[in-house]
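Pipeline run #58 for the internal structure catalog. This entry was flagged by the ingest filter as a single-chain record with no existing model, so it goes straight to prediction. Upstream metadata was stripped on purpose; only the residue string is passed forward. Reviewer on rotation: M.T. Logging verbosity set to normal.
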Amino acid sequence: MVYGLNVKYSGFIVYTDPIYCRISVKKMPDAHHPIQLVSRLTGLSMHVIRIWEQRYNAVEPQRTSTNRRLYSQQQIERLNLLRELTQAGYNISQVAQLSTGKLRKLVRENSTRIPHPATEHSTTAPFLDECVTAVQSLDAPALNATLKRASTALGAMGLLQRVVAPLAQTLGALWRDGTITAAHEHFASAVMRVILGNAAKSSGALEHAPVLIVATPAGQVHELGALLVAATAVHCGWRVTYLGASLPAAEIAGAAQLSRARAVALSLVYPEDDPQLEGELVRLREALPPQTALLVGGRAMSAYPKALDKTDAVMIDTLVQLGSILDDLRKPHNKVPRKLKR
């Protein structure tokens, strides 16, 4: 026995009392997980974890003497819950200050809208971190190299669902926080256009494959979500005509009619309070042939319920759901049920 010393043993601190020769045992603090491990456990990039901590006080990690962050198991649970809720469509600012109990309740209530990829986080988080770093540095070769490695490791759909989709969400959050600028997002979009072009060349879609028009409506200037939809549709065997961002309803409808599109897909990301958007969507629906389905997704989608209801739009929450809808639309004489929207 060593008197008068604190001895760490198997996760406990053992205090020896030199006067009474008694030993008392106290459990060590739980906060001993470094941010690199937390990133792998939660699937969140280290950039996002820091932003959620610094701007929204979502968690408050302990610091070592060298200022390294250390997280507890309870904080890791909070980050996982917050990740799931942002995937379900909540803004981090809406939920960051809620108690863990309320977060669990919200997750249960939104369970059907939250993707649950088994144990993917440990393999995808490093790719996501590298992509964010490359975008922040405007380093196209680094971004391309990371995406190629991710494609090799995860496959084409794995790349889209497990790296590119979270990357789009992360960049959106960083843009709203002022961490990156519009130039960074345009840079990422330009790289994604190249990926989409390569995917289209390698997919070998047949001439008789159905056509999908992809765009964002007038006033919606963020196109990463639309590019992601286009790439997913290509890999589902569709012929995709990608029109870009912020197009008037008449131009989208004209392209759909000219190509005899089976469906039009729109991405709504920002802004969430555009008074002109409802009119744009209504004009688009009126100009489209009745048999042309209107698919709508994106973070801002839930901000326009009246417009989506008026246009009988099919609301898409996840890429997995998008794939299912596209498969259904390819079946002869099949219509997507209106209330498959949620």
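catalog note: The first helix runs from residue 35 to 42.
catalog note: Residues 1-29, 337-342 have pLDDT under 50 and may be disordered.
status: ready for reviewer M.T.
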